[in-house]
Amino acid sequence: VQLVESGGGLVQAGGSLRLSCAASGGTFSSYVMGWFRQAPGKEREFVAAISTRGSSTRAADSVKGRFTISRDNAKNTVWLQMNSLKPEDTAVYYCAAGSVGWDKYDYWGQGTQVTVSS
Questions:
Q1: Whole-number Cα distances in Å, 109 to 22, 64, 106, 113
Q2: Collapsed DSSP state (helix, strand, coil) of residue 54
Q3: What's the pLDDT tens digit per position in 5-31?
Q4: Residue-level pLDDT at 101
Q5: Does the N-terminal or the C-terminal CB of the chain have fewer CB atoms within 10 Å?
Q6: CA dist 14 → 67, 70, 92 (Å)
Q7: Pick from 69, 80, 71: which is nearest to 111 by CA?
Q8: pLDDT tens digits, residue range 51-102?
Q9: Best CA proximity match to 52, nearest among 84, 82, 83, 76
Q10: What is the reported pLDDT for 19?
Q11: Residue 104, exposed/middle/buried by CB under 10 A (0-12, 13-18, 19+)?
């Protein structure tokens, strides 16, 4: 499975961005999809995830109420809508696909940079 993220960029605090992740080479609808991020000098952290059919989602406490994950299995795409962005959201954001449950991800994208200026 190949995952390609897009939509990152530079935005002012309080602004919004929508990240996209396009999948190919596998059965997209069979994967739990997740978004993770890694800031400079920090470990990668979980941001949000969505079930195979999109009926269930999870999000880190730090982004609840601001970020929304969604997917369209017909388009092999998952999105992360990010609103009310904060400087601490600055990181490289990665898309990931997991074939077993919510906690193990087998495939990763190359990442897209999100920078939030104060």
A1: 9, 23, 11, 12
A2: coil
A3: 999 999 999 999 999 999 999 899 999
A4: 84
A5: C
A6: 12, 21, 18
A7: 80
A8: 999 999 999 999 999 999 999 999 999 999 999 999 999 999 999 999 988 8
A9: 76
A10: 98
A11: exposed
By CB atoms closer than 10 A (0-12, 13-18, 19+), residue 96 is: buried
Would you state the pLDDT for residue 26?
87
In whole angstroms, give the CA distance from residue 57 to residue 84: 19
Amino acid (1-letter code) at residue 23 = A
Residue 30 neighbours by CB distance under 10 Å: 12
Tokens of 112: 């897209």
